[in-house]
Structure formats: C-alpha cells, structure tokens
Design a protein that fits this description.
Radius of gyration: 21 Å
Helix content: 25-40%
Largest sheet: 8 strands, parallel
Length: about 400
C-alpha cells in the first residue's frame, strides 16, 4: 500500500501531497495530485489539510522507568538530592510489572504527540539490579511497531576503584541484558575524570555509544565535561558520545565557556539540554539572581557543537510536571535559552535525531517516512499552541 498525506503544509509555505511507500518518502507532488482513497490501486489517501507537516519528533533523554511516580514518591526538599532519596526510599515498592506499565504508558503518550525516536535511561544500581533495563526491554518489544526505543544503562556510583567493582560488573551485565548505550553520572563519583575513563572503556569494550549525566550541578568547580572531551579526542573513541545536562558550564565565565565548548565541538560530543528538570531542581540555593540551570547553549552552538533538548523526567520526584511532548521542551528552550521557534524545533527533531543515530531526517524523497502532521500554520504556532490534533507516521504507517 502507498500512503498519501494529501494537502500537507510544509514549513516553506508550499502545499504538497507526500506519498509514502515501504517506509520511505516515495514522492512529493503539488497538492491535489491525489484526491481519494482507491483500494483497488493500492492507494490510501489521508487528508492533512490545515496541518503543518514536520519530521517526527525525538525524545533524546527520558527516564521511562520513573515516569508517573510523582503521586507516590514525594521529593521532600525539591532538589536533586531530594529526588534521589525519594527514589531510593521507594525502590523496594516498585516491581517489574509496575515499571513496564508506567513506561509503556509514557511511550504511547509520547508517540501520540509525534515522537517516534526515544532514548531512555534505566537505573542500573546495586539496589535495583537489572529490573529497569529488563522492564524497558519488554516495553521496547511491545512498542516496536510504534517507535524506536534506545535503552541507556544508567549505572550507579562509585564506578571507580575497588568500591566500584560491583557497579562495573552490573553495567556489563546490563549491556548483555539488552541495554544499547553506556550511561553513568561521573560528576557524582569520587573521581569524575576516572569515571569518564571507566565508562568510555566499557563502551569501547562493547562497541557502544555513551550518554552520560554530566555536571548536573551549578557548582562551577565541577566541570567533568572538559575532561570527557579531552579524553574522547586523545583516545580516538570511535562511537557517538553524548553529554546530558552540562549545567555547571553555564556558571563559567564566557571565555571559559568558549574554551570548553570548542573542545566539545572538536570531540564531536552531542550535548542535551534538559530544561524541565533542571529548571525545577536547580537554583534553589540562589534566591538572588537565580540561574536558569540550563547549559551554555549559545557558547556550544557558536563553537559548532550539536546541541539538542529533552524532557528528562515525566511526572516523578525529579520533575512533577510534563506532558510527554517535545513541543513543550521546545517552548521551554525558547524561553530559557533564547532560541527562535525554528531553532527550538531543531533541538527536538533533527539535532536530537543526529545525536541518537548520526542522521538528521528531513522531508525529501528517499528519507524515512517518520512524520507528524499537526494543526498549525507555522512552526511558531505548532510550538505555542501544541495542538493535540496530530497525525503520526512511523516507518510509513499511521501509528496515532
């Protein structure tokens, strides 16, 4: 069957019929070329007039195993440590089936909003073992026809020295159990630089990408991002590297931001800004001239680094809000990082896809047919109104 999205409005203002076949965009012709559904000729026409057609959205940083726990686990202090403590205290009450149910619910919500590529971190700690990794692997199996789901094994700390032996072993077990990407929190380790080294070494051992929670703090003295970039360059690490959060970079002098950003760009490290959770957790100790808690987006972009944005947590102790919608993230980036709507959309579409896959999709013949048609006339309207009226296509099939 050939699927035709008829009368689509492209961002350049043209109206077209987009034909999709075998999971790819087959043709793009002026609107009204195709007029009706004709099963006899294998053609299904869907009217998408009054909708803006965009490449499907991307969630580059989620925590599906924690989604929708806000009512059950309270963050008593409202900061990062309070969220961690809430999860530690509640962990014995969270089972495998419960994790699968909440995570699948979150994925289906994201898909309904136009997201067809999701990367989720999964707690991989001695207390939690492989439960989150295995639960997300089950969710990945269930939703394989709706979206692509990457799993990051978010190993606990310390991971260095004798005390980190258990975490290193568990991380390797997680890779065998179905995790796709190596993850961790170097800035929480006793030796952040050594933690970077260990995580890169294990990723190289398995031939996998790396996605690290890096410098999720406003403490300017912590800047493991610089070492990570230097290490990636010196080692010739051959796989994709992503540094998420990078909050402390925003607390550096502008000259220092530029210096580190140039290293990040030279190392081809992708940076994920996470405005939802960082705006909520960070800055509580800075009641005067409160910092935004978002990484130094301008310096990174000026240096040529690939920067994208994610929602991070979804209604849990780390962030009680969230709609599972990358357009909400885009709106926050317009406000918190002074991006234009067009730039913000790229942060949750092309830039994010490039970070996760190395490929930045766009609407053209031969490109993957992962698309979202939303009731809006312009990108600004799409982000501002975030209309729920959306048609979502994944691999050439309507999935929502």
């Amino acid at each position: 069957m050939t699927l035709v999205l008829a009368g689509a409005n492209l961002v350049d203002g043209t109206f077209v019929d987009v034909a999709v076949q075998n999971g790819l965009i087959f043709s793009i012709k002026p609107a009204r070329t195709h007029r009706a559904t004709d099963p006899d000729c294998g053609l299904t026409v869907v009217d998408v007039r009054s909708r803006l057609l965009l490449p499907a959205l991307v969630e580059p940083h989620a925590h599906l195993d924690k989604a929708f726990l806000a009512e059950r686990l309270a963050n008593q202090t409202g900061d990062l440590l309070g969220a961690i403590v809430a999860m530690q205290n509640g962990r014995p009450l969270i089972g495998f089936d419960d994790t699968v149910e909440r995570a699948e619910r979150a994925v289906r919500l994201m898909v309904s909003n136009g997201t067809t590529l999701i990367r989720s971190h999964a707690d991989t700690t001695e207390e939690n073992g492989l439960q989150s990794v295995e639960a997300l692997a089950e969710v990945r199996r269930r939703v394989q026809g709706l979206c692509a789901l990457q799993i990051v094994a978010l190993v606990g700390w310390p991971i260095t020295g004798a005390s980190g032996a258990g975490s290193r072993s568990l991380l390797r077990d997680a890779m065998h159990a179905g995790a796709d990407v190596v993850g961790g929190c170097p800035h929480l380790d006793d030796s952040p630089d050594a933690a970077n080294d260990v995580l890169l070494e294990i990723a190289a051992e398995f031939g996998r990408d790396v996605d690290l929670h890096t410098d999720e703090t406003l403490d300017p003295a912590k800047l493991a991002l610089e070492h990570l970039a230097t290490r990636v360059i010196s080692s010739g690490f051959p796989h994709r590297v992503t540094a998420s959060h990078c909050v402390s970079l925003s607390m550096q002098a502008e000259s220092r931001q530029r210096e580190v950003a140039e290293l990040v760009a030279a190392a081809r490290i992708n940076v994920v800004a996470l405005p939802h959770t960082n705006l909520f957790l960070q800055g509580r100790d800075h009641q005067q001239a409160m910092p935004r808690g978002v990484t130094a987006v301008k310096a990174l972009r000026d240096a040529g680094a690939n920067v994208c944005a994610g929602a991070d947590n979804l209604q849990d102790p780390f962030n009680p809000m969230g709609r599972g919608d990358p357009l909400e993230t885009a709106a926050l980036m317009v406000m918190s990082a002074h991006l234009s709507p067009e730039e913000a959309l790229a942060f949750v579409s092309g830039n994010a896809a490039s970070a996760l896959t190395g490929h930045s999709p766009h609407i053209a013949v031969g490109q993957p047919a992962d698309l979202v048609a939303i009731a809006a006339n312009t990108i600004r309207e799409a982000i501002a109104f975030a209309s729920p009226d959306r048609i979502v296509v994944y691999r050439g099939q309507i999935v929502s």
